TrEMBL record:
Cross-referenced PANTHER family: CELL DIVISION ATP-BINDING PROTEIN FTSE, IMPORT ATP-BINDING PROTEIN
GO molecular function: ATP binding; ATP hydrolysis activity; transmembrane transporter activity
Coiled-coil region list: none
Keyword Transmembrane: no
UniProt family annotation: Belongs to the ABC transporter superfamily.
Organism per entry: Oxalobacter formigenes OXCC13
GO BP: any one term: cell division
Gene3D superfamilies on file: P-loop containing nucleotide triphosphate hydrolases (3.40.50.300)
GO cellular component: plasma membrane
Residue ranges annotated for the ABC transporter domain, each copy included: 5-229
Protein name: Cell division ATP-binding protein FtsE
Amino acid sequence: MSAMIQFQNVSKCYPGNIVAVQDVSLSISQGEFVFLSGPSGAGKSTLLKMIAAIERPDTGTLTVNGQEIGQLKPAGIPYLRRNLGLILQKQNLLPDRTILANVMLPMLVTGTPKDEADSRARAALEKVDLAHRAEAFSPTLSEGEQQRVAVARAIVNRPQIILADEPTANLDRANANKVIDAITFFQSAGVTCVISTHDEQLFGKADRIVFLNQGKIDHIEQPMNGKQA
Ligand SMILES: Nc1ncnc2c1ncn2[C@@H]1O[C@H](COP(=O)(O)OP(=O)(O)OP(=O)(O)O)[C@@H](O)[C@H]1O
């Protein structure tokens, strides 16, 4: 399978000489489900931010869907992001719009006709088991339900890649599983998923778990066959 995301000897420092990522080489195939794990400060969020071109590598090359992030011109960023579904710990749902309107928003921004946006948003809410709350406002939803809305919002534009930064932090087991199961549903349809997590109980659901420590890859596990790479 072709590489959807390829880090080659990538390093990244923040101002003040803070080394966040050090010489990381990692190839993620199209349709793969990868968890990034490791202690706080290990560099998980920084890797995700570089894939989304929120940060750029200082050295090395990072290629996402055929585009080299370090060479990306400002005009190329919306195109890259159009193919990414981002799920963050805090979802930033608009509190004064319905759940349906929140999920429709990314499609309306990219010019999808309203009727189509409406039906695709309802279908996405169905997938995260929230179709019955379409007309509700986000402050009336539990944190777990809001996170599932964020999953629906991230996938409505049919991205090729889903990036999630600790999407199950602060959720109880049942809600954490629902969030991951919703993401897994889209991954089974061929979407590449890269998710940072501390939650070891989720590890069995991934193709690979990349353990980071102090900005470097410590080791990689493949839970399906128990092999260590
Ligand atoms: N904007 C920033 N400016 C300066 N330093 C930063 C910035 N963002 C992250 N860092 C530092 O870079 C290192 C890697 O941080 P990063 O957020 O990637 O780690 P993480 O593995 O995602 O941690 P956590 O599990 O706590 O979210 C840390 O030392 C962090 O303090």
